[in-house]
């Protein structure tokens, strides 16, 4: 199995924003070859570009809220990119290096991260085969990113050498045009005077004998990961600015630090803002389902840290919140002296802590850090409660595992456990710890119970799952593994194999099979908070917190390890569906879901109760003025004269105008994933239609004759709208002077031009053209020969820009040429499991609500003929459809689960219909099937060209079913189309 990186829209938006910052900016390429091109931080073009991005003038990139458009006048260019955890931040800053190199020639980048786990995660991604192949496809095989990693130098008695990573990075020349140079380091290495400030007796770049100087001479662009860990008051930040003197600092993160004095988030030229609200609402990450078992104990001792003394003897004072008795504990004292359930937990540190959020507190031996005022509860640590949580976690896992295994493309399900003691898992002297033994005992019991439910599996999928379970039962220990910081120094081969599988071999962990074809049953991972940063796996569907996190980390960061969207067994990312991460915690955090929701909603730049700041932007989208939309909302009794949403009207407003919903949608963080039940009687009436539309079809394009192929290549390479265009940069000068009236004005003029180099070899250009168009290389070559004979090709014809234009013209040609030259043919065979049925074709009991609709109308009665037992929808048009479909001609109808039926398009991609109906004539003799795809426009003329082609393709798809004897009709529905009228027309005219 190989992971296949896919470019998502929000990621390309972030890349586009970063690229636009430097558009038209004068770059000085006369600097030394080992340095980046130099620009003037005060160049007014930079400020102009950033203003365009923030005001929403860059096509496809969302505007930045006015209150976030802050900047600092520094000696370096600061740029911020905000991306929620799990949305591909590492991908974006890696691709940003390729993009800035391609467009502007920057080739010296330093990535600065706050910890070793994050450093290792970044290194693993950049050096992975799947990342290299992905970026080679986009930027060409010849462009490569050379990564140097700065690690602590090994102690030796002899002469200390200049750090190799710094030497290699600093001395690389931009004359190596296709090489991007990157140095990866932690803040600890940045501040290491022993390594970075030492004056060595060797030099780099002819004169630099100190690593700081060598790096400063490269005029680097610094990329910072996790900016909240690099406050501007911190030593690491000051070292970066004062010693490295970067030209630009681009910060990438979900959380940005607040200024120490004002408490305001210190955004510096924020050009992209994908916060947690957008990430959750747009299904760019999993939703979160929070669970906690009730406390079975009759009494739990609650200890509150009331005070601490960091001077010797160091002490911590706790108070029993029920009896009010106080206990003073010294370093090394056990909390078991207060209550037996705390046995094994001692006071390990008092005073300064390792947590950036708690400067002074108490560190316990289980890794938990307490601030003054924090409370811990003994019942959470009892063996009985720990076993209860393990049992619940195992049941949760297998529920999710079967649901993911039965998909058409299987998804391997992983669970991550955070525990409070390494010994409880690893044990001592080669023996497993008590927690691992208990877990494996409970796991074996549950596997046996699940196997009993598959006593006589009738379908191949169930038989395959039984094999997987039996392999797990045969070697229970192989199903789980751990990673702890102490493992790095372990010589145990079995432990190292576990660590490698978890930390470094992501593809193996996502695979159902080992290289030899045997089952890979590893899917339960244990750690002691070590994996809370720098590591993630897209297929983590459950996080189990068998230890409290104290107050050192935000709720969003806690769930961050499991938010990424999953990948299937072939390595493809699955988007457009509602997935949930189950977060299993103890009873002391019963309010976790509400706290997480509040944390997410607190980030909103605008008050969701007042729509005033959003009116102008949303009105423009609907072709209205701000005043017109305000009056409309006022007359509809949705807002008051102060533009506040009227109590109880928020859901109606959001369904009519979803753009106003800047808060977290209600189904994204829940205590239990919202589901809708499938009405079995109604499904029986629609089963035939559902089975038919889930049959597999292949798209067949008519073959081109040799003559047509030649005409295609000649058209794409033709002189009209030529694919060749020389890439030229412009050097501009702006002067401030007085006009005739004496006012100061800015006068701009072009001083010079320079050529942008992005040449490809002829072979690479041909290969890339074939990969992106599937036109035979022989045909492209022959066309180029003809074009050259007719009009000599320029010397710099074979560039990335020419290639992009060639591919674009080909796709336009294909859309026009094949509009009537494609067909669909059914593939005979077993359908397998679907979004509504299991492999036997029997309906599921329920499905996740988010795959049918975000909103739930609890005021309206659910129509008797509706497929589901709940009134759920995504838009006002869909809500009206459900209300208006209870007409006599309808036998049964339902919303089609999101992306469950994908009609392949001849120009790439798929389209998905929204509603399905079984209809009959008035006399009941004739049954008709009706498929509807809703479009959010009022008139067909408002449909974009691509949308029109999607409708054409969908019509042809369902017409091919008609030709096979299936009575089915497909129609698009626009905003002004009444579904009842559409149904009547289908019944009347067939």
From TrEMBL:
Pfam families: RE_endonuc (PF19778), ResIII (PF04851). InterPro entries: Helicase/UvrB_N, Helicase_Restrict-Modif_Enz, P-loop_NTPase, RE_endonuc_C. The keyword Hydrolase applies. Residues 63-257 form the Helicase/UvrB N-terminal domain. Residues 864-971 form the Type III restriction enzyme C-terminal endonuclease domain. GO terms for cellular component: cytosol. One of its GO terms (molecular function) is DNA binding. Coiled coil: none annotated. Keywords: Endonuclease, Hydrolase, Nuclease. The keyword Transcription regulation does not apply. PANTHER family: ATP-DEPENDENT HELICASE IRC3-RELATED, TYPE I RESTRICTION ENZYME ECOKI R PROTEIN. NCBIfam families: PRK15483.1. This is Type III restriction-modification system endonuclease. It comes from Actinotignum timonense.
């Amino acid at each position: 199995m190989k992971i296949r990186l896919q470019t998502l829209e929000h990621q390309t938006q972030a890349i586009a924003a970063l690229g636009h910052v430097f558009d038209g900016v004068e770059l000085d390429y006369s600097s030394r070859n080992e340095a980046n091109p130099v620009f003037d931080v005060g160049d007014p073009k930079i400020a102009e570009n950033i203003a365009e991005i923030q005001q929403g003038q860059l096509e496809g990139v969302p505007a930045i809220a006015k209150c976030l458009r802050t900047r600092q006048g520094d000696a370096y260019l600061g740029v911020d990119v905000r991306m929620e955890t799990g949305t591909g931040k590492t991908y974006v800053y890696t691709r940003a290096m390729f993009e800035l190199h391609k467009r502007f020639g920057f080739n010296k980048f330093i990535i600065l991260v706050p910890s070793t786990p994050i450093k290792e995660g970044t290194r693993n991604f950049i050096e992975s085969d799947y990342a290299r192949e992905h970026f080679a496809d986009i930027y060409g095989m010849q462009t490569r990113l050379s990564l140097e990693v700065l690690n602590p130098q090994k102690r030796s008695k002899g002469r200390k050498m200049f750090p190799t990573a710094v030497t290699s990075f600093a001395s690389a020349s931009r004359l190596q045009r296709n090489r991007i140079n990157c140095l990866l380091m932690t803040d600890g290495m940045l501040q290491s005077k022993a390594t970075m400030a030492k004056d060595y007796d060797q030099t780099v770049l002819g004169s630099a004998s100190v690593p700081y100087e060598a790096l400063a001479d490269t005029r680097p662009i610094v990329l910072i990961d996790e900016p909240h860990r690099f406050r501007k008051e911190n030593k690491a930040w000051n070292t970066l600015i004062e010693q490295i003197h970067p030209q630009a600092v681009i910060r990438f993160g979900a959380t940005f630090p607040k200024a120490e004095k004002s408490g305001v988030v210190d955004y510096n030229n924020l050009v992209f803002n994908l916060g947690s609200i957008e990430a959750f609402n747009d299904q760019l990450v999993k939703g979160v389902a929070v669970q906690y078992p009730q406390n079975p104990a009759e009494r739990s001792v609650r200890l509150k840290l009331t005070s601490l003394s960091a001077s010797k003897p160091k002490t911590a004072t706790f108070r029993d919140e029920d009896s009010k008795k106080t206990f003073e504990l010294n370093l090394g004292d056990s909390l078991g002296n207060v209550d037996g359930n705390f046995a094994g937990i001692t006071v390990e540190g008092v005073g300064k802590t390792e947590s950036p959020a708690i400067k002074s507190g108490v560190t316990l031996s289980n890794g938990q850090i307490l601030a003054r005022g924090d409370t811990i509860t003994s019942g959470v640590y009892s063996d009985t409660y720990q076993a209860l949580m393990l049992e619940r976690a195992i049941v949760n896992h297998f529920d999710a595992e079967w649901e993911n295994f039965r998909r058409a493309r299987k998804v391997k399900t992983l669970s991550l456990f955070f525990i409070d003691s390494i010994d409880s898992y690893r044990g001592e002297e080669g023996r497993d710890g008590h927690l691992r033994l208990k877990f494996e005992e409970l796991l074996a019991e549950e596997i046996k119970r699940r196997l009993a439910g598959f006593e006589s599996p009738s379908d191949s999928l169930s038989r395959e799952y039984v094999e997987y379970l039996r392999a797990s039962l045969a070697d229970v220990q192989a199903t789980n593994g751990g990673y702890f910081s102490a493992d790095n120094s372990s010589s145990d081969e079995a432990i190292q194999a576990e660590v490698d599988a978890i930390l470094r071999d992501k593809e193996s962990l996502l695979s159902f099979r080992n290289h030899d074809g045997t089952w890979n049953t590893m899917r339960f991972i244990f750690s002691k908070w070590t994996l809370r940063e720098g590591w993630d796996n897209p297929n983590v569907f459950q996080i189990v917190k068998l230890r409290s996190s104290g107050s050192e980390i935000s709720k969003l960061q806690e769930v961050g390890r499991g938010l990424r969207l999953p990948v299937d067994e072939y390595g493809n990312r699955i988007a457009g569906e509602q997935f949930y991460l189950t977060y299993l915690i103890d009873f002391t955090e019963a309010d976790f879901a509400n706290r997480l929701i509040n944390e997410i909603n607190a980030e909103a730049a605008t008050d969701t109760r007042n729509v005033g700041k959003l009116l102008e932007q949303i009105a423009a989208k609907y072709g209205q003025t701000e005043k017109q939309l305000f009056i409309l909302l006022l007359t509809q009794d949705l807002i008051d004269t102060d533009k506040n949403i009227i109590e109880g009207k928020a859901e109606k407003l959001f369904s009519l105008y979803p753009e106003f919903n800047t808060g977290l949608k209600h189904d994204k963080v829940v205590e239990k994933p919202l589901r809708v039940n499938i009405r079995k009687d109604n499904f029986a009436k629609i089963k035939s239609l559902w089975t038919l539309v889930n049959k597999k079809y292949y798209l067949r394009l008519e073959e081109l004759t040799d003559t047509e192929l030649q005409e295609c290549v000649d058209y794409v390479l033709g002189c009209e709208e030529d694919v060749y265009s020389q890439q030229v940069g412009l050097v501009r000068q702006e002067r401030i002077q007085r006009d005739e009236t004496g006012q100061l004005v800015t006068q701009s003029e072009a001083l010079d031009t320079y050529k942008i180099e992005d040449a490809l070899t002829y072979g690479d250009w041909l290969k890339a053209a074939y990969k992106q168009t599937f036109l035979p290389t022989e045909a492209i070559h022959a066309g180029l020969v003809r074009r050259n004979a007719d009009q000599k090709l320029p010397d710099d014809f074979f560039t990335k820009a020419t290639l992009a234009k060639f591919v674009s013209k080909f796709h336009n040609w294909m859309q026009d040429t094949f509009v009537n030259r494609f067909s669909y043919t059914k593939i005979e065979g077993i359908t397998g499991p679907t979004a509504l049925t299991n492999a036997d074709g029997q309906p599921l009991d329920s499905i996740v609500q988010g795959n049918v609709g975000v909103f739930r109308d609890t005021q309206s009665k659910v129509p008797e003929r509706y497929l589901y037992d709940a009134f759920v929808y995504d838009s006002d048009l869909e809500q009206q459809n459900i209300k208006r479909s209870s007409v006599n001609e309808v036998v049964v109808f339902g919303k089609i689960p999101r992306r469950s039926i994908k009609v392949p398009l001849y120009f790439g991609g798929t389209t998905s219909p929204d509603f399905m109906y079984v209809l009959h004539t008035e006399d009941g003799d004739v049954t008709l099937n009706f498929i509807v795809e809703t479009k959010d426009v009022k008139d067909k003329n408002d449909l974009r060209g691509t949308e029109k082609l999607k409708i054409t393709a969908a019509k042809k798809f369902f017409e091919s079913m008609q030709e096979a004897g299936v009575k089915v009709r497909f129609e698009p529905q626009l905003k002004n189309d009444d579904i009842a009228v559409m149904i009547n027309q289908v019944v009347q005219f067939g």
